[in-house]
Design brief:
This protein is an alpha+beta fold and 137 residues long. It has one domain (5-135): Roll (Nuclear Transport Factor 2, Chain: A), CATH 3.10.450. The protein is globular. The protein is built from five helices and five strands, in the order H-H-H-H-H-E-E-E-E-E.
Length: 137
């Protein structure tokens, strides 16, 4: 499946904004984003697809279900996300965050109910937006 240009552009702009804002995110915001990302990675590692789905942003969850034509837990099970082994870094700026592990990069957004994953299984591509396995439209 080819990534939608708008999604790629949005993720690329988000990554640029997050990297440009290095050091500008409040420590509490970074800690909260890291906790949400860590919870998501733990759910992935445990094969807890129901929990992982609750940690996805609403549009990301809808896009995954639409792409796979299955409810989120079954659609999530079909994804081949890398298993992370700890957080290497987190940057937060406003309502956006980027969490890096040794094997994965997550993009998160802050919603009323807390931080949610908007893209996962992301790998950088030099000169281009990240390529993400799971992403919203």
């Amino acid at each position: 499946m080819r990534p939608h240009r708008t999604v790629g552009r949005t993720i690329g702009l988000l990554a640029a904004a997050v990297f440009a804002a290095t050091g500008c995110g409040a420590p509490a915001r970074q800690d909260a984003a890291a906790a949400a990302g860590t919870a998501f990675e733990a759910a992935v590692a445990a094969g807890d697809h129901v929990r992982a789905c609750t940690l996805l942003a609403p549009q990301t969850r809808r896009q995954l279900e639409q792409d796979e034509q299955k409810p989120c837990p079954a659609a999530f099970a079909a994804q081949k996300l890398p298993t992370a082994s700890g957080v290497d870094g987190v940057e937060a700026y406003g309502r956006q965050a980027l969490l890096m592990t040794g094997s994965d990069t997550l993009f998160l957004s802050l919603f009323t109910g807390g931080w949610k994953v908007v893209a996962a299984g992301c790998t950088p591509r030099p000169g281009q937006p990240y390529d993400c396995l799971i992403k919203g439209a």
